[in-house]
Amino acid sequence: MFFKIAVICAASCLFSVQAIAMTNDYGRKLFTSTTLGGGTTGKTCLTCHEKGRDFSKETLTKQHFTVMGNEIAGLPAVINFCIEVALRGQELAPDGEQMRNLIAYLKIFIEQNNKEENP
Ligand code: HEC
């Protein structure tokens, strides 16, 4: 019985690790793309947010953001704000595949940078 549970656990853990790794790759590609949303500035998300600058753990959970003096509600809206204003691109669908992957990668990115700062 215990063995059976362990096998099921191991299989599903492997699966979820793989899923995260895939999200990570695609999300990172978007995060470091100069053409995200058709952007025209030659910048990427990483250009400004290198080493997690401006991000904190609260970035993933807070509902209200103040970005460059603008009040913005919700993470997808903030990301779209940065795409439109900072990358001069077109906003992404708030629940679309690219947005979901960017947010998934943002989680990984923020965790990695927090670890480096506070080992
Ligand atoms: C030209 C520089 C620049 C680029 C490029 C840029 N950002 Fe930003 N971003 C900022 C600045 C500046 C802030 C807000 C700093 C402040 O006012 O506190 C910010 C804020 C944010 C926040 C809110 C963080 C918080 O906790 O308040 C998120 C999330 C974010 N950016 C994501 C992105 C993503 C994703 C991209 C790529 C699509 C991106 N940014 C591209 C400059 C940029």
Most strands sheet: 2 strands, antiparallel
Spans of 5+ residues with little confidence (pLDDT < 50)? Answer: none
CATH homologous superfamily heading: Cytochrome c-like domain
- Number-wise, the strands total 2
What structural class results from the helix and strand content?
Answer: mainly alpha
Name the beta content range.
5-15%
Q: In the CATH hierarchy, what is the class? A: Mainly Alpha
State the helicity in percent bands: 55-70%
Average pLDDT, all residues: 87
Shape: elongated
Structure report:
The structure is a single chain. Helices cover 57% and strands 7% of the residues. With 119 residues, the chain is mainly α. It has a single domain, classed as Orthogonal Bundle (Cytochrome Bc1 Complex, Chain D, domain 2), CATH 1.10.760.10. A hairpin with a 2-residue loop joins strand 1 and strand 2 (70-73). The longest helix is centred in the N-terminal third of the chain and has 30 residues, at 2-31. It is elongated and about 55 Å long. The N and C termini lie far apart (39 Å). The mean pLDDT is 87. Bound molecules: heme C. Residues 36, 43, 45, 47-49, 54-56, 59, 65, 67-68, 75, 78-79, 82-83, 86-87, 102 line the site of heme C. The site of heme C has 21 residues, from helix 2, strand 1 and helix 3.
